[in-house]
Amino acid sequence: MTDATHTHEPHATGVSQKLNWLRAGVLGANDGIVSVASLVVGVAGATTDTPALLLAGVAGLVGGAISMALGEYVSVSSQRDSERALIAKERRELAEMPAEELEELTQLYQERGLSRDTAVKVAKELTAHDALAAHLEVELHIDQDDLVSPWQAAFSSAVAFTFGALLPLLAILLPPPEWRVPVTVVAVLIALAVTGSISARLGGASQGRAVLRLVIGGALALAATYAIGTLLGTTVV
Fold it and tell me: What's the pLDDT band for 21 if we cut at 50, 70, 90?
């Protein structure tokens, strides 16, 4: 069992930090597809005016990209601040109570299946090499040289949102007026199936379920906004 003085520290393995930018990118693309598609399809339900569709789509793209980037930056910055605080705390504990920290590292290796003698030997050798890195890796699952980057996550999310949003924007503008909504719906549902498959593969989840959830959710969003646009277009315009 781990020393009671460290029960408040997170010992559970988290998601790989190296995939953070890719996760943000997939989520950003998916959000760009759904939000801008819902917006332009809703407007298309009310009017076939191309400048109105262009204005709505571009406004949704720019506003959404900025919002996604800001959200990712704030979220990842909070995570990075927490990681830095844990690193500083661990460094302080190693300086103030090295014997207790060595015992804690030994116990953690025992919990992983090593015998007491082997765990003691491993803990001592790793402590002699780099005590802080050893504790961060085994105890907190943090690599101090590979902390998540809020700027990288924000940029990846904004770019992915933009590329995702371009699909429904072009799909609603390029076809003839009578084909705009059907073409956009088909393009969006195919794109959602692709992003759902990618996100499931990254997370090791079932691709079928992930794709089905996104496609059904996207279809419902498009149907709802188109119905609202049609209703407002006939009652207000």
Answer: low
